[in-house]
Amino acid sequence: MAREPRLIPSDEGGDAACWAHLFEDEEGEAAVTTPVSERVLAAIVRAMGDGVVVADQEGRIVFWNGAAERIFGWSAAEAEGETLDLIIPERQRDAHWTGYRKVMATGETKYGTDLLRVPAVHRNGERISIAFTVCLLTGDDGSVEAIGAIIRDETERWTEERDMRRRLRDLEAAAAG
User: Fold this and answer.
1) pTM (global) more than 0.85
2) Among the four 71, 73, 78, 176, which has the fewest Cβ within 10 Å?
3) Coil, helix or strand for 154?
4) pLDDT value of position 33
Protein backbone atom coordinates (compact mmCIF):
# COMPACT_ATOMS: atom_id res chain seq x y z
CA MET A 1 0.00 0.00 0.00
CA ALA A 2 1.45 3.36 -1.05
CA ARG A 3 1.74 6.02 1.59
CA GLU A 4 1.63 9.77 1.28
CA PRO A 5 4.98 11.46 0.64
CA ARG A 6 6.49 13.14 3.66
CA LEU A 7 8.68 16.20 3.87
CA ILE A 8 12.31 15.53 4.65
CA PRO A 9 14.02 18.79 5.59
CA SER A 10 17.09 19.35 3.48
CA ASP A 11 20.00 21.71 3.51
CA GLU A 12 19.88 21.58 -0.28
CA GLY A 13 17.37 24.44 -0.07
CA GLY A 14 16.36 26.65 -2.93
CA ASP A 15 17.85 24.63 -5.74
CA ALA A 16 14.65 23.69 -7.55
CA ALA A 17 16.18 20.49 -8.91
CA CYS A 18 16.68 19.33 -5.31
CA TRP A 19 13.13 20.17 -4.27
CA ALA A 20 11.70 16.95 -5.67
CA HIS A 21 14.06 15.02 -3.37
CA LEU A 22 12.33 16.43 -0.31
CA PHE A 23 9.79 13.60 -0.66
CA GLU A 24 10.60 9.95 -0.01
CA ASP A 25 8.72 6.70 -0.19
CA GLU A 26 8.85 3.94 2.44
CA GLU A 27 12.27 2.73 1.25
CA GLY A 28 13.77 6.21 1.37
CA GLU A 29 13.61 6.52 -2.41
CA ALA A 30 12.36 9.67 -4.10
CA ALA A 31 8.58 9.47 -4.49
CA VAL A 32 8.94 11.18 -7.87
CA THR A 33 10.42 8.15 -9.55
CA THR A 34 10.70 8.92 -13.25
CA PRO A 35 13.38 11.32 -14.46
CA VAL A 36 10.80 13.08 -16.64
CA SER A 37 8.50 13.69 -13.65
CA GLU A 38 11.38 15.02 -11.58
CA ARG A 39 12.50 17.34 -14.37
CA VAL A 40 8.95 18.57 -14.92
CA LEU A 41 8.38 19.23 -11.22
CA ALA A 42 11.70 21.05 -10.88
CA ALA A 43 11.02 23.11 -14.01
CA ILE A 44 7.56 24.11 -12.79
CA VAL A 45 8.83 25.19 -9.39
CA ARG A 46 11.78 27.04 -10.94
CA ALA A 47 9.74 28.82 -13.65
CA MET A 48 6.47 29.64 -11.91
CA GLY A 49 5.70 33.29 -11.30
CA ASP A 50 4.26 32.64 -7.85
CA GLY A 51 6.46 32.23 -4.81
CA VAL A 52 6.78 28.77 -3.27
CA VAL A 53 7.76 28.75 0.39
CA VAL A 54 7.86 25.70 2.66
CA ALA A 55 8.24 26.06 6.43
CA ASP A 56 8.75 23.28 8.99
CA GLN A 57 6.87 22.68 12.25
CA GLU A 58 8.68 25.53 13.98
CA GLY A 59 8.03 27.94 11.12
CA ARG A 60 11.59 27.81 9.79
CA ILE A 61 11.88 28.19 6.04
CA VAL A 62 13.16 25.00 4.37
CA PHE A 63 12.42 25.93 0.75
CA TRP A 64 12.22 29.29 -1.09
CA ASN A 65 11.96 29.51 -4.88
CA GLY A 66 13.10 32.21 -7.30
CA ALA A 67 9.72 33.95 -7.36
CA ALA A 68 9.83 34.20 -3.54
CA GLU A 69 13.23 35.87 -3.98
CA ARG A 70 11.64 38.42 -6.34
CA ILE A 71 8.57 39.01 -4.15
CA PHE A 72 10.39 39.40 -0.84
CA GLY A 73 13.92 40.45 -1.86
CA TRP A 74 15.74 37.72 0.09
CA SER A 75 17.75 35.04 -1.71
CA ALA A 76 17.00 31.40 -0.93
CA ALA A 77 20.35 31.12 0.85
CA GLU A 78 19.43 34.07 3.09
CA ALA A 79 15.84 32.99 3.77
CA GLU A 80 16.26 29.28 4.40
CA GLY A 81 16.75 28.51 8.06
CA GLU A 82 15.09 31.77 9.11
CA THR A 83 11.60 31.87 10.59
CA LEU A 84 8.65 33.29 8.71
CA ASP A 85 9.10 36.44 10.83
CA LEU A 86 11.42 37.42 7.96
CA ILE A 87 8.34 38.40 5.92
CA ILE A 88 5.61 38.94 8.56
CA PRO A 89 5.00 42.52 9.74
CA GLU A 90 5.63 42.80 13.47
CA ARG A 91 1.99 43.80 14.16
CA GLN A 92 0.70 40.57 12.59
CA ARG A 93 3.16 38.13 14.16
CA ASP A 94 1.10 37.15 17.22
CA ALA A 95 -1.96 36.37 15.08
CA HIS A 96 0.18 34.52 12.53
CA TRP A 97 1.91 32.28 15.07
CA THR A 98 -1.37 31.55 16.89
CA GLY A 99 -2.87 30.36 13.61
CA TYR A 100 0.29 28.51 12.57
CA ARG A 101 0.46 26.55 15.85
CA LYS A 102 -3.25 25.71 15.57
CA VAL A 103 -2.80 24.32 12.04
CA MET A 104 0.22 22.29 13.16
CA ALA A 105 -1.75 20.85 16.08
CA THR A 106 -5.03 20.15 14.28
CA GLY A 107 -3.90 19.45 10.72
CA GLU A 108 -6.74 21.63 9.49
CA THR A 109 -6.76 24.86 7.49
CA LYS A 110 -9.32 26.55 5.30
CA TYR A 111 -6.52 28.17 3.31
CA GLY A 112 -5.92 25.07 1.26
CA THR A 113 -8.75 26.31 -0.95
CA ASP A 114 -9.58 29.80 0.35
CA LEU A 115 -7.22 32.58 -0.62
CA LEU A 116 -5.65 34.42 2.32
CA ARG A 117 -4.74 38.07 1.71
CA VAL A 118 -2.36 39.62 4.23
CA PRO A 119 0.33 42.27 4.50
CA ALA A 120 3.96 41.18 4.31
CA VAL A 121 7.36 42.83 4.46
CA HIS A 122 9.93 43.10 1.67
CA ARG A 123 13.63 42.95 2.50
CA ASN A 124 13.87 46.72 2.06
CA GLY A 125 11.28 47.19 4.83
CA GLU A 126 8.51 48.16 2.42
CA ARG A 127 5.08 46.78 3.22
CA ILE A 128 3.61 44.65 0.45
CA SER A 129 0.31 42.82 0.03
CA ILE A 130 0.35 39.09 -0.67
CA ALA A 131 -2.28 36.45 -1.38
CA PHE A 132 -1.66 32.75 -0.90
CA THR A 133 -3.01 29.26 -0.37
CA VAL A 134 -1.27 26.54 1.62
CA CYS A 135 -0.82 22.80 1.53
CA LEU A 136 -0.08 20.69 4.58
CA LEU A 137 2.74 18.17 4.30
CA THR A 138 2.11 15.30 6.68
CA GLY A 139 4.11 12.46 8.20
CA ASP A 140 3.24 8.78 8.46
CA ASP A 141 1.12 9.41 11.55
CA GLY A 142 -0.87 12.16 9.84
CA SER A 143 0.74 14.96 11.82
CA VAL A 144 1.68 18.10 9.94
CA GLU A 145 5.43 18.26 9.38
CA ALA A 146 5.50 21.35 7.19
CA ILE A 147 3.35 23.90 5.43
CA GLY A 148 3.85 24.89 1.82
CA ALA A 149 2.53 28.17 0.46
CA ILE A 150 1.97 29.39 -3.08
CA ILE A 151 2.29 33.17 -2.85
CA ARG A 152 1.44 36.02 -5.20
CA ASP A 153 2.37 39.69 -4.78
CA GLU A 154 -0.91 41.63 -4.92
CA THR A 155 0.43 45.02 -3.85
CA GLU A 156 -0.60 46.72 -7.09
CA ARG A 157 -4.15 45.26 -6.95
CA TRP A 158 -4.50 46.22 -3.27
CA THR A 159 -3.32 49.79 -3.95
CA GLU A 160 -5.75 50.16 -6.87
CA GLU A 161 -8.66 48.91 -4.76
CA ARG A 162 -7.74 51.25 -1.89
CA ASP A 163 -7.60 54.19 -4.30
CA MET A 164 -11.00 53.24 -5.81
CA ARG A 165 -12.55 53.02 -2.34
CA ARG A 166 -11.12 56.45 -1.52
CA ARG A 167 -12.50 57.95 -4.78
CA LEU A 168 -15.90 56.36 -4.13
CA ARG A 169 -16.02 57.85 -0.61
CA ASP A 170 -15.10 61.27 -2.03
CA LEU A 171 -17.80 61.02 -4.72
CA GLU A 172 -20.42 59.91 -2.18
CA ALA A 173 -19.47 62.77 0.14
CA ALA A 174 -19.67 65.30 -2.74
CA ALA A 175 -23.07 63.93 -3.86
CA ALA A 176 -24.43 64.09 -0.30
CA GLY A 177 -23.01 67.57 0.37
Assistant:
1) no
2) 176
3) coil
4) 52
